[in-house]
From TrEMBL, chains A, B, C:
Annotated SUPFAM superfamilies: Bet v1-like, ISP domain
Residue span, Rieske domain: 7-107
Keywords, sorted A to Z: 2Fe-2S, Iron, Iron-sulfur, Metal-binding, Oxidoreductase
Biological classification of the source: Bacteria, Pseudomonadati, Pseudomonadota, Betaproteobacteria, Burkholderiales
Record carries keyword Lipid metabolism: no
Protein name stated in the entry: Rieske 2Fe-2S domain-containing protein
Keyword set includes Metal-binding: yes
CDD domains in the record: RHO_alpha_C_DMO-like (cd08878)
Pfam families, A to Z: Rieske, VanA_C
Amino acid sequence: MFPKNTWYVACTPSEIDDKPLGRQICGEKIVFYRGPEGKVAALDDFCPHRGAALSLGTVCEGKLVCGYHGLVMNCDGKVASMPGQRVQGFPRTRSFPVVERYGFIWVWTGDEKLADPDLIHPLEWADNPEWAYAGGLYHVKCDYRLMIDNLMDLTHETYVHTSSIGQKEIDEAPVNTKTEGDMVVTSRYMENVMAPPFWRANLRGNNLADDVPVDRWQVCRFTPPSHVMIEVGVAHAGKGGYHADPKDKVHSIVVDFCTPETETTMWYFWGMARNFNPKDKALTAQIREGQGKVFAEDTVVLEAQQRNLNTFPERKLLLLNIDAGGVQSRRILDRLIAEEQPQTQTA
Amino acid sequence: MFPKNTWYVACTPSEIDDKPLGRQICGEKIVFYRGPEGKVAALDDFCPHRGAALSLGTVCEGKLVCGYHGLVMNCDGKVASMPGQRVQGFPRTRSFPVVERYGFIWVWTGDEKLADPDLIHPLEWADNPEWAYAGGLYHVKCDYRLMIDNLMDLTHETYVHTSSIGQKEIDEAPVNTKTEGDMVVTSRYMENVMAPPFWRANLRGNNLADDVPVDRWQVCRFTPPSHVMIEVGVAHAGKGGYHADPKDKVHSIVVDFCTPETETTMWYFWGMARNFNPKDKALTAQIREGQGKVFAEDTVVLEAQQRNLNTFPERKLLLLNIDAGGVQSRRILDRLIAEEQPQTQTA
Amino acid sequence: MFPKNTWYVACTPSEIDDKPLGRQICGEKIVFYRGPEGKVAALDDFCPHRGAALSLGTVCEGKLVCGYHGLVMNCDGKVASMPGQRVQGFPRTRSFPVVERYGFIWVWTGDEKLADPDLIHPLEWADNPEWAYAGGLYHVKCDYRLMIDNLMDLTHETYVHTSSIGQKEIDEAPVNTKTEGDMVVTSRYMENVMAPPFWRANLRGNNLADDVPVDRWQVCRFTPPSHVMIEVGVAHAGKGGYHADPKDKVHSIVVDFCTPETETTMWYFWGMARNFNPKDKALTAQIREGQGKVFAEDTVVLEAQQRNLNTFPERKLLLLNIDAGGVQSRRILDRLIAEEQPQTQTA
């Protein structure tokens, strides 16, 4: 259950720089590669000749060459040539709209006529020298919506991430959730608390004292199909919190693209963008390593949750106030999915 | 096909001393943990909030805390609390009757109203300073009844355990099998034979000569649902065999709890209890290591047998006199399983 | 979809010299072992007593002894004896016609009345001191017919084996395919080309210059059920090519037995026979190692192709001139399979 007329993050540029990449997205087996002038291309990962995986092939002069018998593809899915063959009558392979932007490769698996690059979610921190970004990719065996639920209810930090970003005060802070058009925002503000270890390290990374009380905030924003951007940060207490002067705070954006692979598996592109000390590469690497460990903890919980839901598909779950972020996000998804269905049965 | 209104061994105390344990027993996914005052508790391993695996959580002041969002469970399956929530209306999670006794945790997956701890199979050697016990646990991919068949027909020792406890004379000794109420007893006595390596080591462990003829015995007792206790031993020949004076023999009880996980997989709790030199811990460790190797040989044979039976479910097998122990044990199981079925179709 | 009234290569002698071998061939689980006087025998790998895998047993005086309870089998599938049992009434186990010839064990999984050893494909190079042979075995997760397609269209060498035997001129050389009775022959001849690395090493192995132009040939012969023998070689250019004097060429036979395990998995017995420098064991080992690396490249492509075909079973594939070898081979297989079907529905 995922919308298809939308842009998903499919991979990062480095994954296709050297050779084609085969990856399943929204149930479609797709080969991603760099076509003419290095422009990214995406095709059905199935050679029309004998069904070989095109992703095992090579790119030659911007064309994808099947690694089995040398059929040559244009990036629009038309066969360009094949040794010793006349290819005019060869069937065309499905191509997928694909765009490289903001340091990611975005793919559209739905109706290609609707694939407008302007619909790609803007990332204001990308390609911005005042910001630094680093992240990673996890394959997670769960419905991508479980990950959205996870990210839209950060009370889990207290229990899943006890030694890094969790702290008791998260639970105690009231949560506010609202839907604004196709965006869901859920936020929490904590005042005059001690920072947990991950944030203490960040304070030090911005040359701020880490042993004094802070104000802490979490503002999670879901946008379709499966992006969750979370503004997180701490400021020395009493300096204005979220609105404090940059010299008194550390502030980051947790970046989460939850791309469905199948109904019950997903690609988790996670990362963090920050605008303090952006040129400090050692700090960037340190934050990435810490975040990688923290987010690996989520995958264990979510995969076990998915196995439980597979075993007991009929069980009703609770919907509490803390679940409002996930519930409202799923409501948007349900509407988008419904809008994609054929209208034939309407009276 | 297993009876559910009965006590199965679920785990050993050490498996839950540090943290909760998730384990499937008779098809039920269960979390075992130590509740108030260290008393063992067992609940459905499924958080009523979002379906997380409770076994990934922690125990705090005797209560199980879900490792996802901090829902707190009492050991009766009622929700005790949850940060920021009013939990009175929360659904109750199924709890399972569970008892710690004789060095094992016993669970009842059937009708809890019938769960009488007095029905737990008595183990006279447990908690008895004149006896020593050690054992282990194997996960085996076979129907638990194949393991019962195995243990109730020890002719297999000659072929599966050639280098340790097998000897040709087992085959040649007549076997006697009888059902006594809900117990099946199958026994064999060999006279004036040379002890195989495992038993020679035991003779030495009791300071007895290992190079003289012995009388050997095997008395296997099946009791429902899946316990097989086997009295085994050797005595210097002509000293009275099974009834010989303790100074002339070595005598042990092979302990086997064959707990179903699913219809075709099981947890095999194996061990050995002995009443000679019970304080010799090195001997205990040596026997445990030897038994572990011997019983691993069974798992290879049984898993291949299960694959064969899966491939050819329609094939009829032979039922020989040596199979009487397994046949009579299954007859008791079939009756118990039938008695558990609803009586509605009876005229 | 495979013919059953035919001889398949099941294993090599060394696989059964020390102990029985369990292997699935054409969907049949079979135990292969050396019976009386070392003669190979093949039985259903299922003990009639309790369904144990006979392949876990031992051979004693030419009889197969079940490794569970000691049932003793004759090589015709009749039970010879069992400790303490009268076995006259025991059911007979299916035996399979099996022959050791040419350094392979051949099995017939169809109607045993039709199993004529004279139908085994002759291998003129086997047991011939003027030839040397070495090979290996790969388990490949694909329909055996995908491997036949692969071997009957060597244009793939250019793309799959770029660094060893591939070269652009293969594509450019015309291919000729014809069916002769139950044999399909597809051939290619290249003139005045530079030899690729694998063939340069072979030239040096026959003390021939490797840096001069050569004529190269590939003559692939499919015979049912799944043998593909490929005459391959290079001669110094202008010396007569395929017909050149032995001192001016290197010539080998690529040997491929593609034995079905199940509908979508196979055993790939690959090897190479050569008649130059046959006593040079270091050369034999070097060729075997090189061939092993080359043929492993095929398995990656074919397993990905099989996964694609599983995902899209309805997709039509192209049938080009280069596919004629595979197409004509499958046509013979289809006819043989049809001939094996019962004739009852014929009017």
